[in-house]
Write a structure and sequence with these properties.
globular, about 300 residues, alpha/beta, UDP-N-acetylmuramoyl-L-alanine:D-glutamate ligase, eight-stranded mixed beta sheet
């Protein structure tokens, strides 16, 4: 199987875990940890941790933390031949506060220098996409990168799976999402994309609403995660809509859950699973991720073998 190539960013997350009830106006005792993150990098690590072939067309830097991130990805088997290393500004930073329940209480982001990645993909994007099995694209890097990668994927007949960043490109260029195989997002992102208010809606209501919304928007397939309610999905080709229940687990840290759900779902789809089966893989990977302080699922090379036995 050719590797799924991931076009995205690398971040270092500075996480503060509140020990007791989080008070945004006061001092909070707890723990502070540095964790490898970034949407693209998270997906790469999730794939590699369960033994799925994956290549990273992202960016790192010649700093101590950059070399640490690179070494970790190499050790778990990620293909880094398409990655570029720059002297500085190759890694973003995300400062995040988590409350006593592991839920996000506040954050601030600093983006890496995407212009360098844009130049790299302009020069080598054709070769990168041609040698991939499928493409995971962090669409919101910038409009030029998204257009280029989707154009190359169409030329070479590769499926593109869109993962959300900050919604800046997605909301301005909904036409790009129509050219992707599957759009996987959470309920807040879906509400923005479809201009629909989901606040307080039950999963069944969203499931019933989704098929006509996907058809009207001209999308191929969509999965919307609903937090503790699970996820709903619709496949335009098969006309199948459904509900994926969440997997019970102890919540330690919810960051990375969306990237893990996305990763598991795409892993299933590139292996030929139905959208319903793939969403189930995503739910299991997300549950494994939120039960630990890391942004990724644990190393589990037998993940798919065990699922086949269920």
């Amino acid at each position: 199987m050719s590797p799924t190539v991931v076009v995205g960013t690398t971040f270092v997350d500075i996480k503060g875990f509140a020990q007791n009830h989080y008070d945004p106006q006061g001092r909070n005792l707890g723990e502070v940890k540095f964790v490898h993150g970034g949407v693209g990098r998270n997906v790469v690590e999730n794939f590699a941790n369960v033994g799925m072939p994956v290549a990273y067309a992202g960016m790192l830097e010649d700093s101590a933390i950059g070399l640490e991130v690179e070494r970790r990805l190499e050790e778990i088997g990620a293909d880094l031949r398409w990655m570029i290393r720059v002297p500085d500004h190759g890694i973003g930073m995300w400062l995040v506060i988590l409350d006593e329940n592991g839920n996000l209480a506040g954050s601030v982001s600093k983006m890496p220098d995407i212009a360098r990645l844009e130049d790299h993909l302009r020069a080598r994007g054709d070769a990168i996409v041609a040698q991939s099995g499928a493409v995971v694209l962090e669409v919101d890097l910038n409009e030029t990168i998204a257009e280029n990668i989707i154009r190359l994927a169409k030329r070479h007949g590769k499926d593109v799976y869109a993962i959300v960043g900050n919604m800046s490109v997605i909301l301005a260029r909904r036409d790009l999402i129509r050219q992707t195989k599957c759009f996987i997002c959470n309920e807040i992102e879906a509400a923005k994309f479809f201009a629909e208010d989901f606040h307080g809606s039950a999963a069944e209501e969203v499931r019933a609403w989704l098929p006509p919304a996907v058809e009207k928007a001209g999308l191929q397939s969509v999965v919307v995660t609903l937090g503790e309610q699970g996820a709903v999905y619709y496949d335009k080709e098969t006309k199948v809509a459904g509900f994926c229940p969440p997997c019970p687990t102890k919540v330690v840290d919810t960051t990375g859950a969306g990237d893990a759900f996305f990763s598991g779902t795409v892993m299933g789809l590139v292996r030929g699973a139905t959208l319903a089966e793939a969403a189930g893989y995503g739910a299991r990977l997300a549950a494994a991720t939120i039960s630990r302080e890391e942004n990724n699922c644990p190393v589990d090379k037998a993940f798919f073998d065990r699922l086949r036995e269920l």
